[in-house]
Amino acid sequence: MTAGPLAAFAAGVGPPDAGPVVAEGGRTQWSAGVVDPEALAAARAVRAPAGVVAVEAADMTVRVRAGTPVADVDAALAEVGQVVAVPDWPGATVGGVLAVGHSGLRRLGWGPVRDTVLEVRYVSADGRLVAAGGPTVKNVSGFDLCRLLVGSLGTLGLVGEVVLRTRPRPEAERWLAGEADPFALLRRLHRPASILWDGTTTWVLLDGHPADVEAQAGLCDDLTPVETGPALPPHRWSLRPSELPTLAGEGAFVAEIGVGTAHRPDPQPARPVDPAVRTLHERIKAVFDPTGRLAPGRDPLAAA
Amino acid sequence: MSATAVAADLAAALAPDRVRTGGVELELYGRDASVLAGEALVVCFPLTTDEVADAVRIARRHGRPFVARGSGTGLAGGAVPIGDPVVIVTTKMDRILEIDPDERVAWVQPGVVNLDLTRALAPHGLHFAPDPSSQQACTIGGNVANNSGGPHCLAYGVTSAHVLAAEVVLPDGTVTVLGGLDAEPVGLDLRGVFVGSEGTLGIATRIAVRLTPDPPAVATLLLDFPTVAAAAETVSGIIAAGLLPAALEMMDQRITEAAEAFAHAGYPTDAAAVLLVELDGLPAGVAAGVERVGEIGRVHGARAVRVAADDAERALLWKGRKSAFGAVARVAPNYYLHDTVVPRTRLVEVLAEVYAIAERHDLGVMNVFHAGDGNLHPLLLFDAREPGIMDRVRAAGEEIVRVSIEAGGVLSGEHGIGLEKRDLMPLLFGPDDLDAQARLREAFDPDGVANPTKVLPAGSRCGDLQSIPEGVWV
Q: What does pTM read for this prediction?
């Protein structure tokens, strides 16, 4: 049933002598991990097929083609009262957000994006369709190639279709904002969806049963309801949650409390990489893409 | 074989009393909790990361593979030594190195016992979410190797979701850290790849685990059904209603009887099946969930819905479930525990098939399993003294695997592949799929020395032969 579009995608990628290729989604994070813009620009852009294949509401999973806009998946799941913990950047596709691997603002409550991926069907560097993982919510059958592919920037394989774990769509949700100690709120609240802090203002996103949202809101000191969270500066810094207090007074930021991500106007300086980890990256790239034709010019170790 | 020379080098690098070559001990470490057996060349007990790295390098210098081992509670033969390896036992590396309640992370050595960690965390109002039935004995290192689950993984996820970083000794003896405590560690998710790799990519020597806050409200329910199908339909109904219980366990009549005789939990022994359901979180959501689960159960014919009145009653209900496997000894001398997963919408029909398969092979069967995530655990009952019985047990087991996969399921939910299911991998994966997994293994372990012959069937790597260490029998 899904073989048609996926097979066509694989044929479009073609064998190694078909040259360098890069998968294109909504281009919302196109600069991620680019170390050689010319090599990337010279690669032939291909697009994964699109479409929600199956909403398995009673199993709380969804099978979706990688070229599908995240907004379309969300709309399909809204009809059955479910949601996926995948960031809903405007214009982004499922394949694109998984290739980048960054989580959305609700990671504190909903977990990281990589934990939502149950199965991946991808096109390998030699143009073959490969399946990894499986459609069930629990699975330890073999190596976890799904986690290898999430955040690999399309350098190891081009994702064509995935099965994602869904969550119950929260019955109620509420943004609050004001001046409060965000770290005290983290200790006091039970699994809030998000706590954000810019050094002065704290934002809290609560979701769940309406009565619980109400009760938790009552624990949020003087915070008052607001329509939405803050605008985010464009660059991501990956810090330890315990490092976030040190950001105060160091320029503009919006920090995800309890998670460690800080959104800042300037990019994070290159992070140190242990030589053994670098060697593993090189060996993995060499076995998955011996000719270096997938997403040339991109390096996951260079991604912010 | 060069056992004496290997042992001498290990004794010099570790300590003479932490290296064993005696027959009885080699026999003991030749097995895990599966029905399979192998043979260790030498067994050693390192205390530190450096000693693990030394042991790996010594094994390699002598041309031997190595096998990491925790408590040996694995059920798929993952720790069974094949190819005269050096067995590196991590149980003496049993220290909790650091608990940071603010950052909700703890660094532990691999030999820390799962339940000991959770007990140490209790004063902080935190716990380690994966809770396999073997949690009184199994180690965190073993949990990492097998990506272990447990009843409460339904809402909280399996081990992979709870490991932030691991210091590992790679198959060439190099020490490095995979993952990190920062939000989005740089590069590929090698931590995620390592978890569940069954000791084939290296040995974890320090593990940073994510700590989960204890929920403010918990409710535990026992539902009692006249038929197995009614219980299974209730499971599907609960998931379909968009509820996400912390745990959703099912026990059929035979195992309920055995568990009740052992634990005196007040289980209804005349019920065809019971469901143990736990809801946790904030009070209103929990109360609404209890109501809803009760309704769904009654719609499907539940005879009774018992809600535990207090923590003591909750503990009692769980005691029955957690001691179920031990209680089987009262019923049959031996059992073979299976582990497959099916989509939760297919539970009713697959369970019916499991009973039919056991009957066709004239074997007793009990079912006690993580119904909420579709993770079946049929126990085939037998008496190993009966000639030829193992052939029937294996044949029935393979049929259960096939039926699960035909229903859209997978080979294993939490026990792993090891040796037990290695040759069944082609039921789930095609040649190109297995080739991709073999490539990953090759990147970490080009010489195939870390727990050789496990997980992937021989010939998985298309186009060339897996390099197999000298002396390995496959």
A: 0.96
* pLDDT on residue B433: 98
Nearest chain A Cα distance for residue B266, angstroms: 30
pLDDT greater at residue A20 or residue B133 = A20
Separation CA A295–CA A297 (nearest Å) = 6
Compute φ and ψ for A157, nearest 5 degrees: 180, 155
- A 44-63 near B (Cβ less than 8 A): 56-61
CB contact under 8 A, A115 and B444: no
> pLDDT tens for residues B418-452?
999 999 999 999 999 999 999 999 999 999 999 99
Which listed CATH number (1.20.1250.20, 1.20.1640.10, 1.10.10.920, 3.30.70.2190) goes with B217-326? 3.30.70.2190
Nearest CA-CA partner of B82 in B52, B41, B35: B41
DSSP structural state of residue B16? G
Q: What span, in angstroms and rounded, lies between the C-alpha atoms of A13 and B24?
A: 57
CATH of B3-89, one of 3.30.43.10, 3.50.50.60, 3.40.50.720, 3.30.200.40: 3.30.43.10
Q: CB of A97 within 8 A of CB of A107?
A: no
**Cα separation of B185 and B197, whole Å?**
20
User: Could you read off the pLDDT of A47-88 as tens digits, one per residue?
Assistant: 999 999 999 999 999 999 999 999 999 999 999 999 999 999
Q: DSSP E strands: which ranges in B296-436?
A: 304-307, 334-337, 340-341, 364-369, 375-376, 378-382
Give chain A's domains with CATH numbers. Answer: 3-168 (3.30.465.10), 172-264 (no CATH)
Kindly list the residues from chain A whose CB atom is less than 8 angstroms away from the CB atom of residue B407.
none
Q: What is the pLDDT of residues B171-185, one digit of tens each?
A: 999 999 999 999 999
Nearest to A295 by CA among A151, A163, A145: A151
pLDDT digits (tens, 9 = 90+) for A14-44: 999 999 999 999 999 999 999 999 999 999 9
337-356 of B, contacting A, C-beta below 8 A: 341-345
Looking at 3.30.465.10, 3.60.10.10, 3.30.43.10, 3.90.110.10, the CATH number of the domain B96-213 comes to 3.30.465.10
Q: SS3 of A5, please?
A: helix
Average pLDDT of the segment spanning B10-14 = 98
